[in-house]
Amino acid sequence: MTAVIEARELRKVFGRRSGWLGMGAEPGKEAVAGVSLAVHAGETVAIVGESGCGKSTTARMIMRLLTPDSGRVLWQGEDVTDHSARALRPLRRLVQMVFQDPFASLNPRMTIENSVAEGLRVHQPELNREQRRARTAEMLTQCGLDPAVMGRYPHQFSGGQRQRIGIARALIVQPKALVLDEPVSALDVSVQAQILNLLCDLQRQYQLGYLLISHDLSVVSHIADRILVMYQGKIVEQGETAEIFADPRHDYTRTLLAAKPVLHPDDREA
Amino acid sequence: MISAGSVNPLMRWGGGIVAVVALLALLAPWIAPYDPVAIDVRQMLQPPSWHHWCGTDNLGRDVLSRMLFGARVSLAVGFVAVGISVVIGIAFGVVAGFVGGRVDAVIMRFTDMVLCFPTFFLILAVIAFLEPSIWNIMIVIGLTSWMGVARLVRAELLSLRHREFVLAAEALGASSWRLVSRYCLPNAIGPILVSSVLGVAGAVLLESGLSFLGLGVQPPDPSWGNMLTAGKDNIQIAWWLSLYPGLAILITVLGYNLLGEGLRDWLDPRQ
User: What is the tens place of the pLDDT at every residue in B191-232?
Assistant: First the structure.
């Protein structure tokens, strides 16, 4: 089975300058140093790691929002690394993204209806206004929102509601995979569970492949099938979720697991 | 975004002045007591009185009427010149900020270069070369004052370009045009508005300066600048010829500056 998302040896260097005749040249910092991964339909793959380890950069390269310095990005088996913006456009509906900050991920000057319907304008231009509206309402309902609020602006919603709107916006184009960049880290714990449950339901219904970017191990253990541990731009360990939690091999993974908060101090292993 | 919170005093005063001046300019043909270009030598250099509230000039023309008509010139120049400069500024700023890279570098160095020119003397030279007319003034002021807007729009676009809601739209496949027109620019409208309002004040001052030097609006058509020129020739015997047009310029520029600063504070999310 072809993977819905595949990355091969992705590499990204920030701040490199060639300088002039070697003057002022800077080697730059390697943010992502050869990351390979594959996500199949219906499974959740999580990338965990501390902030600054290159998780989000990897996600953005996979979304083709950032051009990798080397390596390949494949969506449903098609190599899209070198596609122009125009060639990429029709394929964009295959892979969508849900962002971390629900307060920054919606255009404050656009109604919810227009924000969510954006994908339909691009990918189903044949729909008229009424049809777009019906599809938008349907999608919002599926994400647990009352379609009566479509005409409102983002500031009239809570963080959890906005994240639902963000999910609806991504799903309206019927993607095969979602990249979830810290989808619940900005939310209250009680709301986190609701959003995670929604994501799980949607995954089951549409056989979506999820690439989950997170630093929160309790979230990861809750929904991930496989885990990739990333440290300083490299994947240092990977395996089934249960395996990694039961038997972490890399030092960094052990540190990460030890840092996971526990309910009671007695639960913490010495 | 914009809450209907209390409007600050800067904005209230500035807005009030701007509104009153605009209204006077608009209604000039109906409220002016005399024909602004009607010469009456028997009434020349009359001090302010009940007949001529602001006195008369060396040709017996009513200063108040001339000022009211002069306001139309000043405001027309202000608005059209700023309109031109905002359009150019947004175009350059959007391309530089959105495309980035080499294009950005080239546009911004060009902007820096234009900024190095002493604008006023450039305008003087151009107007002296062309024919001094109100249209030429509008165009020349517009063409030489877009740099501030361009830098501002570029800076806004640079930060908006990587905001999550813009990335989300890009991931959905929205076109660059749509990203700019529906996602970036509507969120940069505040600073552009502030800069435009302040720009009007600058353009009014520039026009007055040019007209004062005889390169702006040509007599007998009144403008605050050329009224000042007439005033300086008679300043020892007729103070009213200089004082009133000068006050008009001062109050109008002050009004636009207050409104601009007030808008800036009002739109500032930190307040």
Answer: 999 999 999 999 999 989 988 988 888 888 889 998 998 888
pLDDT at B37: 83
Domains of chain B by start residue, with CATH: 9-33+40-267 (1.10.3720.10)
Identify whether the C-beta of residue B70 lies closer than 8 Å to the C-beta of residue B50: no
CATH, residue A108: 3.40.50.300
Q: Which amino acid is at A100?
A: Q
d(CA B97, CA B105): 10
A60 touches chain B (CB under 8 A): yes
> Chain A contacts of B1, Cβ < 8 Å?
108-109, 153, 155
B171 closest CB neighbour out of A97, A123, A153: A97
The model's pLDDT over A135-158, given as tens digits with 9 standing for 90+, comes to 999 999 999 999 998 999 999 999
pLDDT tens-digit map of A41-51: 999 999 998 88
What is the residue range of A104's domain? 5-17+26-264
Residue to substitute from B3, B165, B176, interface A, most A β-carbons within 10 A:
B165
Query: In the predicted model, what is the mean pLDDT of chain A?
Result: 90
Does any domain span residue A189?
Answer: yes
In a domain, A269, yes or no: no
In a domain, A270, yes or no: no
Residue B105, chain A, CB below 8 Å: the answer is no
The Cα of A87 is separated from the nearest Cα of chain B by a number of Å equal to 10
- Residue from B156, B167, B172, B180 to probe the interface with A (highest A Cβ count within 10 Å): B172
CB proximity under 8 Å: A 156-175 to B: 166, 169-170, 173
- Interface check A86 vs B, CB under 8 A: no
Whole-prediction pTM value?
0.85
Examine residue A215 and state whether it is found in any structural domain, yes or no.
yes
Q: How many domains does chain A have?
A: 1
Asked whether B187 and B160 are in contact (CB, 8 A), the reply is yes
Question: CA dist A37 to A34, A44, A46, A126, Å?
Answer: 10, 12, 10, 36
CB distance A115 to A167 below 8 Å = no
Does B173 sit within 8 Å of A93, measured CB to CB? yes
Average predicted confidence (pLDDT) for chain B = 89
SS3 A129: helix
Burial A95-110 (b: 16+ CB within 10 A, else e): bbbbbbbbbbbbbbbb
User: Cα separation of A216 and A46, whole Å?
Assistant: 10
Residue A205 DSSP one-character state? H
Cβ pair B170:A65 closer than 8 A: yes
Q: Chain A within 8 Å of B135 (Cβ-Cβ)?
A: no
Q: Is the ipTM of this complex over 0.85?
A: yes
Condensed to tens digits (0 to 9), the pLDDT of residues B16-39 reads 999 999 999 999 889 888 888 888
| Among the partner residues A89, A101, A106, nearest to B173 by beta-carbon distance | A89
